[in-house]
Amino acid sequence: MRLLVCGDLHLKPAASDYDIDAVSAPEDVDAALVVGDLTHRAGDDDAELARRFIERLATDIPVVYVPGNHDPAPMPEGVVAPVPGATAEHLSARTLGDLTVVGWGCERRSLAPPLPQTEFDALDPRTSPREDRRYAADRIADDLLDACHRVVGGSASIRDAAASLGIADGEATAFRRGVETIEARYERLSDRLCGRADALLATHVPPFGTSFDRHHAVGTRETDRELLHTGSIALALAIRDHDVFAAFSGHSHAFGYDPGGGRDGRPHLLNLGFRGMGVVSLDPARGEFAFSRL
């Protein structure tokens, strides 16, 4: 199967740097995935612009539209409602040929993480010397994922996880609240992935700990955050525990491809970056995954 994947286009009704009437699917593409932030706002004029874009693709192929934080649910449902062949997927699934796409998008514009690392001394890589911060950020991300995985798997309590990470007593309540939120999101995702083989995940926020979920620091005030991982811990854990062949995401505006440690490089994790568009050829039965950016 060949998929057109696009995300973070951030189309604006008043902009003139694109031509909606020229939008079309490349030849030999079987379906399209839009992984959120198709428009920059969720106003009525943005929804109309999004509908025109989806209509242009859906004349030839089925389209799956996942809500982003700039076009959160329920906006995409209204966009695709009059368009045959297009669906909006958020914690729901759609079959495309022999493959099943599970969508997970956003319900609000604000995406504050449940465990903001800068609020926990033991999780904040900025306490390390500047030359060591990238390594520290990666190590902390791995440790945090492993600790949360033990909790959702039932082999450790939240208190155990806090102790293993060195969370201070005064931060324990905030840590518990954050892990409980992660558990709830993990369960919602697992409900959709359980029992599925070779699932494709179409998400907006990338999995936590990837090469492309770094904080996109802007301005002097944000420079110390530039190495932080800001993806979804719940998503990363769900991918770890279920049969996911590939996951497509956006949000971070950073291009990246991370192959997994499983057979044939699965799970394949891809983010095409800001205004990213690409064609992905995949065949889970043969372990085939290849992509080209447009």
Q: Which key terms come to mind for this protein?
A:
Purple Acid Phosphatase, chain A, domain 2; 27% helix; globular; 294 residues; 6-stranded mixed β-sheet; alpha/beta
Structure notes:
There is one protein chain. The chain is an alpha/beta fold and 294 residues long. The chain has 6 helices and 12 strands. It starts with a strand and ends with a strand. The protein is globular.
Layout: helices, strands, pairs:
Blueprint lengths: L1 E6 L23 E4 L9 H15 L4 E3 L9 H6 L5 E3 L3 E5 L2 E6 L28 H20 L5 H8 L6 H22 L5 E5 L29 H9 L2 E6 L5 E4 L9 E5 L3 E8 L4 E6 L1
Parallel strand pairs: 1-2, 2-3, 3-4, 6-7, 7-8, 8-10
Antiparallel strand pairs: 1-11, 5-6, 9-10, 11-12
Helix pairs in contact: 3-4, 5-6
Q: Could you give a quick summary of the protein structure above?
A:
This protein is 27% helix and 21% strand.
Indicate the CATH topology. Purple Acid Phosphatase, chain A, domain 2
Biggest sheet strand order reads 4-3-2-1-11-12
User: How far apart lie the N and C ends?
Assistant: 17 Å
Order of helices and strands: EEHEHEEEHHHEHEEEEE
Q: How many DSSP E strands?
A: 12
Main beta sheet: strand number and arrangement?
6 strands, mixed
Look at the helices and sheets and give the structural class: alpha/beta
CATH architect. name: 4-Layer Sandwich
Helix coverage percent: 25-40%
**How many whole angstroms does the radius of gyration measure?**
19 Å
Number of domains: 1
Low-confidence stretches: none
Instruction: Tell me what portion of residues adopts beta-strand conformation.
Output: 15-25%
